[in-house]
User: What shape does this take?
Amino acid sequence: MARRPLVAGNWKMNGRKSSVGELVKIIAGVRKLGEVDLMVCPPATLIMSFAAAARGSRVAIGGQDCFPLPAGAFTGDISAEMLKDAGAEAVIVGHSERRQYHGETDAAVRAKALAARRAGLVPIVCVGEIRADRDAGRACEVVGGELDGSLPETGAQVIVAYEPIWAIGTGMTPTAGDVGAMHEFIRESLTSRYGEAGQDVRILYGGSVKPDNAKELLTVANVDGALVGGASLNATDFLAIASVYS
Ligand code: PEP
Assistant: This one.
């Protein structure tokens, strides 16, 4: 089964109204690319304007987090339904920065993934090990536990992002061999959970993907695209990463 690659940019807590200029460059650049989907996940303040700017283009807009409930007295939170209403098509859930700084458990991440689906968004569920776990040979055990706890039990409408925590924003990356082994492990876990439909789930790699390492990391078997942090803030770099699939 051919899975169309996806390169998604996580802008984190970066971007102002004026940043729409980068999005416009991405929209223009994607026309020259081949079979690849692009997504930009700006902060919630920009979703509505970015979705308007990207309408009709090959660039989808996503959120970075959502609350499990659709509405209510939860000051400062944003529901999946609100993201959908603002024009998002997907939402990242369980990013390691949310797990680390906001204490999000696997159960909370699963609730958010289910909320995303309820609202008609595709959840991008993030998993990944810390360096000590990789060094101790426990990377698959840790990632397997996160998949078991965070993924919806049924229905394969989901994207998984494998993001080794020690590779995020550090300039360090696993070897292509380690990425391949982990993505194969995740694929097996998805097919044992979802059956044949697990073959259709896209598994993104994330963690210090840059134009100069994109080809090596993103052409590995079972790597169906990338979740890009820092390099996604610059349209030229983001497009250069996506051009691996052209
Ligand atoms: C991320 O935070 O999802 C990420 C992959 O960041 P970076 O590309 O900057 O390592």
